[in-house]
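Q: Could you write out the predicted structure for this multi-component system? I'm mainly interested in how the pieces pack against one another.
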Amino acid sequence: MRIAVDAMGGDYAPVEIVAGAVKWVAEEVGRQIFLVGQEELLKQELKPYSYDPSRLTVVNASEVITMEESPATAIRRKKDASIVVASRMVKEKKADAILSCGSTGAQMAAAIFILGRMEGIERPPIVASIPNMTGAYTLLIDVGANVDCKPRQLLQFALLGKTYASIIYGVEQPRIALLNNGEEESKGNTVTMETYALLRQQPGINFTGNIEGRDIFTGKSDVIVCDGFTGNILLKTMEGMALFIAQGILNTGGPIPAFFQRLDYTQTGGAPLLGVNGLSIVCHGSSKREAVYNGLRIAEDCYNKNIIEMQQLELSRISG
Amino acid sequence: MRIAVDAMGGDYAPVEIVAGAVKWVAEEVGRQIFLVGQEELLKQELKPYSYDPSRLTVVNASEVITMEESPATAIRRKKDASIVVASRMVKEKKADAILSCGSTGAQMAAAIFILGRMEGIERPPIVASIPNMTGAYTLLIDVGANVDCKPRQLLQFALLGKTYASIIYGVEQPRIALLNNGEEESKGNTVTMETYALLRQQPGINFTGNIEGRDIFTGKSDVIVCDGFTGNILLKTMEGMALFIAQGILNTGGPIPAFFQRLDYTQTGGAPLLGVNGLSIVCHGSSKREAVYNGLRIAEDCYNKNIIEMQQLELSRISG
């Protein structure tokens, strides 16, 4: 498997990105990495490592997109940005996946403009795997790509989330719930009330109704659908709360319980953008080598399980 | 101080409500409780206790509003429901405050129809005090009363939240932030982007900009403004996550660190509805005696600090 890694994106780029990539590629012969970014810098960074140059190569990309830029504009103007070059490699079948820890907006824009959206998908969502009480994960979709969502777009998220949960989590009939401010059908804002009606009518999905915030962690749902505004705030709140509790335990003399490892996003590594015609793995901006390594493993898992083709199949079933 | 307690509302009514009220009223001579609910039942419940009957009296109310009923309809139809009778006592100045652990929607409806909204307030919000890393609390407003909010209504929440934080938390120039999916001014959905502009223009408030989920617990804001859909999901997610972590620690052999007490809502007890012309304290539906007792203490604190008059003053300053 060949992965084009955006070596310039993320808080710890390129140092930690390079370290994670070197570790992953060394493990198995069938793996190949393209480190995409400023050639001189990356070659310098690679010096301390011993690696097989036929399986780890640097691909030059002179420009970098920062967090402050408008993603869509940046993607159009900076044709030689690392995320653009990496995405093009997937489009041209020179690589099987992209991985980036940089601006998620830019990665999404590159995916839409270069790889293209799947038929039937208006707004590709970003997903996150949330650990739950059963020891498994629950998929939260969307966690930030689309702040204002229409009901039919939330339905599209449900279809993509269904595929992800069945393929990646291995759940047979994923239970799909709608995040809401109450369990009753009558609860919700304008958008979720309309979405509830759409989800209930949709054939081929196992819609279990509304889910409240307090039940996210119980494992009673495999996929939780929400707009990207709510999902983004929620995901960051979970991250902030884990830190708050860990800090509070430390301050009151505790040791940090081992369980906190389950809340560590570096264990998950990353997740693919869904609804785009190519594998593009989003990693946390603060990813260090372990998270990058785990992100690459996710990419491999998605590739081996044909996540792109499986989404296309699910969508064609619906429209057909 | 005289408090009309809705003795019929909540998961543990009337047993735990009565126990909390008896404890509170016994502590000081100046305190008075009206236990509002089914007279025979409450008299039976009071039998094991010794109390001063001149300071703890039962007020009969034959009807009960359930969680399943439409709050507005129930309030109009059930004139003898405990929450209606209790609210009327405040309106008629027979009591200084109401406290309820029952349906928040019914309590809000009773507050709006019987006590009335303050001038300049379209949609009274519900608040919650969130513990933060500085050892203090951050006010989250609205946590569930209004699922679809207009920017001007979020501005009204900010004004009410300012008063609450300065009066109850004792913060001089409360830092007010807007909950959003990014810190930058350009971030947000349609509603938060418009709200940002309104808050920035508003004289007399210390608006510090957008706040992300991960910073809720840092204590960098005193008041965090959001719509009731997001706030409700967020609050319940925090509750669910605290349980998830505690359960996870237990399952992996740990003792629960003492710090978890800070996350326990029973310590806070309750919070007043803001923007209505009377003191109405909302408590968690699962409140036991300690939470009820702490809720009564919050009621007393709000009463002593003239929270109603201070809100009216703040609102008249703005319109004047």
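A: Regarding packing and overall arrangement: The longest strand of chain B covers residues 32-37.
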